Amino acid sequence: MKNLLVAIVVTLLFIGCSNTPLPVKSTNSADSAEQHIVTGMNLIEDGRISSAISQCNRALALEPKNSSAYSCLAIAKNDKVLLEKADDTIENNIDKFRYYIANIRIGDIKSAKEFYDDSKDLEVEYLPYYQDKESADYFLALNYFKYLKLENTREFSGNVFKNKDAKFATQSRVLWGKVDGVIRALSLSQFTVTAKKLVLKDKIKRVDIAVVLEDEISLSKLMKGAFKADRKDMARTLSEDILNHPNLPQIEIFYKYGLRGLEPKISVGKEKFLPDSFITRADFALLLEDIVSKALSDKKLKTKFYGNVSSFSDVKNNGYYFNAINTAVARGFLKPNRNSEFRPDSVLNGVELIEAIAVIKEEIR
């Protein structure tokens, strides 16, 4: 009996002093660490981070020293400290590959490339979730994209879809296409830092348009020349939502010269500029038409296509933006898709913005 008591005391002391909690008991066959890791990784890809963290934590509850679970949690939390725990608990090459990929995903460019090289040298036959070594190329491409290393992004994303059966082949092809378009757009002209950042955006805000047009084509000087003198008064009163806006100097230009396409809108019964709302392709076409019409003193431009049959299946002849859209396409500012759709209500993206600015620079030169 005495020996039994001593054994119990020693065991309790060991448990109390250990930093590793005891594993919880699995409730069913699907309640396994590996299942929760794979589920957690999928949730990360879907952007459901809080749910992913719960899955990774469940994996660690079941297996407190599971390296892959720590790697999963490190990605979800963007936490490099957790990577140290993942490194300390590696048991096999699968754990090691997942650890390498986690470092590629959340590390800086230099360390990401080093871990990428390590992953390529690793001998492993089967990779749960990641499936193939091309996964390392995909996540390195995403890392380069995060730091705006576009040529590197295009190179490593291109490595992936060469293997059509690669897990991230589709995502890599989409990334390659986007970056290739960005690189081609940026090659059309010299652009400011702000414009280069905007080219990567899938949606462009109204305030972004105000800033980038002033930066790229000196819109205020262009309009001053078009009106032969600088206007002292605004064409319309400034709306309350921009009075203290940090980009007010650029936004004021649109109020001063009454430019269409970026005019204030009625929101909750009040006229507002809505700087953080997104601009549609139709409104951007209206804006470009108005700028060119005023800059070139060409009043006929705004009625040039009246009476024509629409060339686009989604643009009606009597639409308020009919002439502007035809003007934008005819002058090469914007392009329809292959199905002869202009997509007037779609939000303008960064590549479309940069391509249009490059063309309009030549137009007003």
Radius of gyration based on Cα positions: 28 Å
How many DSSP H or I helices? 17
Main sheet?
A: 2 strands, antiparallel
Please state roughly what percent of the residues sit in beta strands, choosing from under 5%, 5-15%, 15-25%, 25-35%, 35-45% or over 45%.
under 5%
Largest sheet: spatial strand order:
1-2
Structural class category: mainly alpha
What's the number of extended β-strand segments?
Answer: 2
- Spatial separation of the terminal alpha carbons: 98 Å
Short characterization:
It contains 17 helices and two strands. By secondary structure, it is mainly alpha-helical. The chain has a two-stranded antiparallel ribbon.
Can you put this structure into words, describing what you see?
The protein has 365 residues and is mainly α. Among the domains are: 19-111, Serine Threonine Protein Phosphatase 5, Tetratricopeptide repeat; 203-364, no CATH class. 56% of the residues lie in helices and 2% in strands. Strands 1-2 form a two-stranded antiparallel sheet. A hairpin with a 2-residue loop joins β1 (265-267) and β2.
Question: Helices, strands, pairings?
Answer:
Layout (H helix, E strand, L loop, with lengths): L1 H16 L15 H13 L3 H14 L4 H11 L2 H9 L4 H14 L2 H13 L12 H13 L3 H11 L8 H18 L6 H6 L7 H12 L1 H8 L21 H9 L8 E3 L2 E3 L8 H15 L26 H9 L19 H15 L1
Helix pairs in contact: 2-3, 2-4, 3-4, 4-5, 4-6, 5-6, 6-7, 6-8, 7-8, 8-9, 8-10, 9-10, 10-17, 12-14, 12-17, 15-16
